[in-house]
Design brief:
Layout lengths: L8 H21 L3 E4 L2 E4 L6 H10 L9 H17 L1 H6 L6 H26 L16 H4 L1 H19 L6 H8 L4 H23 L1 H4 L4 H13 L1 H14 L3
Antiparallel strand pairs: 1-2
Length: 244
C-alpha cells in the first residue's frame, strides 16, 4: 500500500506566500529596482508599515479577484449530472431500461434546444450574447460562459432526474445539486490563499521585475487558481474510499 500523502494545495500556496514575503523583504533591503518607462520600479516589502497595512486591508477583499463563482457553478453542474443519474446513463447507454432510455432522449432534446437558443443568441436578431461591438470580447457569452455551461448540464440533468423519478421533490433536486459541494470548501480555502499570493506578487512588484506581462500573469493566475481542483478532488475521493 502506498503511504505517500500529498500536501494540501492551500498549504503549498501558503508556503509560497511566505517565500514571496521573505524574498520581497530581502529584495527591498538590497534595494532591487529597474527602470520602467519614465520612472523606477522598486521591489516593495510586505514586512514594512505600508506593506502590513496593505496586507491587513486586502486580506479578505483579495478573494474577490478569485473565480469563486465559476468554481461554485462548476461544482453545482457536476453535482446535478451525478445526482440525477445522467452521467451514469451516459456511461452505460446500451444497458439503459426503456424508462431510462426515454428520459435520456428527452434530456438530450432539451440540451439540443438549449444549444440552438445559444446559437440564435450569437448569430440571430440583436446578437444578444455578443458584445456591443459585435464580437466576443466583453460579451455575455465570453464573460458568462461558465453560467451558460452550468445550465447546459443542469437543465438536461433536471429533466432526466424528473423523468426517471430520481427527483421526486424540490428538495431532491437541491440535494443533488449540492452532492459534491463538500470539496468546494477545501477549494475555497485554497483560492483564498492563492488570491493573496497573486496579490502579493503584484504589490511587491516581483511579477513586473521578473518581466511577466499582463497576459503572462493571466495565464499564471489561471493555473494557480485551477490546478488545485483535480488534486483536491482526488484527495476527496481517496478520503471517502479510505485509500492512503
Amino acid at each position: 500500500m502506498n503511504n505517500k500523502r500529498w500536501w494540501h494545495p492551500a498549504i503549498v500556496y501558503l508556503f509560497l506566500l511566505v517565500t514571496v514575503i521573505i524574498v520581497s523583504w530581502i529584495g527591498s533591503v538590497m534595494q532591487i529596482s529597474r527602470v520602467e518607462g519614465n520612472g523606477e520600479l522598486t521591489l516593495r516589502s510586505v514586512l514594512g508599515v505600508p506593506g502590513l497595512r496593505w496586507a491587513v486591508r486586502t486580506a479578505a477583499s483579495s478573494l474577490a479577484y478569485a473565480p469563486v463563482g465559476n468554481a461554485l457553478m462548476l461544482f453545482i453542474a457536476v453535482g446535478a449530472g451525478r445526482g440525477s443519474g445522467l452521467f451514469r446513463a451516459l456511461s452505460r447507454l446500451r444497458n439503459l431500461s426503456p424508462k431510462e432510455r426515454n428520459a435520456f432522449y428527452i434530456s438530450m432534446l432539451v440540451l439540443i434546444i438549449y444549444i440552438c437558443l445559444i446559437v440564435l443568441g450569437v448569430f440571430a436578431g440583436s446578437h444578444l450574447l455578443l458584445g456591443i461591438t459585435g464580437t466576443l470580447k466583453g460579451s455575455p457569452l465570453y464573460e458568462g460562459f461558465m453560467f451558460l455551461a452550468m445550465l447546459a448540464v443542469c437543465l438536461p440533468s433536471l429533466v432526466y432526474g424528473l423523468s426517471t423519478e430520481t427527483f421526486r421533490t424540490a428538495a431532491d433536486c437541491a440535494d443533488a445539486f449540492c452532492t459534491i459541494l463538500s470539496p468546494f470548501a477545501h477549494f475555497l480555502v485554497t483560492m483564498l490563499v492563492a488570491a493573496q499570493l497573486l496579490q502579493t506578487l503584484e504589490y511587491t512588484h516581483i511579477d513586473a521585475l521578473l518581466g511577466l506581462t499582463e497576459r503572462s500573469m493571466q495565464i499564471v493566475s489561471f493555473l494557480i487558481y485551477w490546478l488545485p481542483l483535480p488534486i483536491i478532488q482526488l484527495q476527496s475521493i481517496k478520503k471517502k474510499t479510505g485509500v492512503k
